[in-house]
Amino acid sequence: MGFPPTTVHRVPHGVCTDLPQAAARLATRPTNVLGVATRLVPGKGLRDILQAAARIPETQVVIAGDGPLLQPLHRTVADLGISGRVQFLGWQERLDVFYASITLFISMSRKEGLPYSVLDAMARGVPVIASDIPGHRDLIVNGETGFLVDAGPALVTRVKQLLRDAPLRAQIALASTARVRAHFAICDMLRRQRSVEVATWQALRS
After folding, report:
1. Buried/exposed 64-91: b ≥16 CB within 10 Å, e otherwise
2. Is 94 within a domain?
3. 174: burial class by Cβ within 10 Å (0-12, 13-18, 19+)?
4. Based on the structure, what is the number of domains in the chain?
5. Residue 36: what are its φ and ψ, rounded to 5°?
């Protein structure tokens, strides 16, 4: 956009990291529930997730969020024959119970900035499988703190692997919470913002 690089500062989102340790939550999680938290709008890859779930009979899907695609998604669920395995929660004021009740968090968006829902899942020790796009790459170290995949067979394969491999889920959960604590804590975000504000004020006064 023509701004000198030295005048541009990037401050990533931050989330609360003052949460119970991931290891303490692993034993209480279900073993077959896929969680999605997003606006129900085009571009979020929701049909890709539902189609993947239809190919994995042992899964349940819980979707938190609302939007204009709610009724079309209900029809998709019915067409896929998985109505008994999909629950739409609607818009949620708080997602603590949601994150505690899922095994994996799935985000197959076509485009994201730095998605808070993925950060929240990682902070709570929920293994994440996400689409391979820039916003997700900023958060997830592929194969270490989550997995980046394309829609279709790759998504199905990765979901099956993680559902059947409890030690791998535990490894990803611990690594993802450590990454959030190290790079995306809200206190760090506020400190960086303050630093930019102070530097800007000093530059304006000089």
Report:
1. bbbeebeeebeebbeebebeebbebbee
2. yes
3. middle
4. 1
5. -135, 130
Which residues does the chain have with pLDDT short of 70? 11, 19-28
pTM, full prediction: 0.84
pLDDT of residue 11: 67
Cα–Cα distance, 187 to 197 (Å, whole number)? 15
Structural domain including 79 reads 27-205
Q: How far is CA 48 from CA 99, 130, 161, 201, 203, in A?
A: 21, 11, 18, 47, 49
pLDDT at 19: 63
- Two tokens at 17? 């990291």
* CATH assignment of the domain containing 187: 3.40.50.2000
Packed helices 116-123 and 166-183: angle between N→C axes, nearest 10 degrees: 110
What's the full length of the chain, in residues?
A: 206
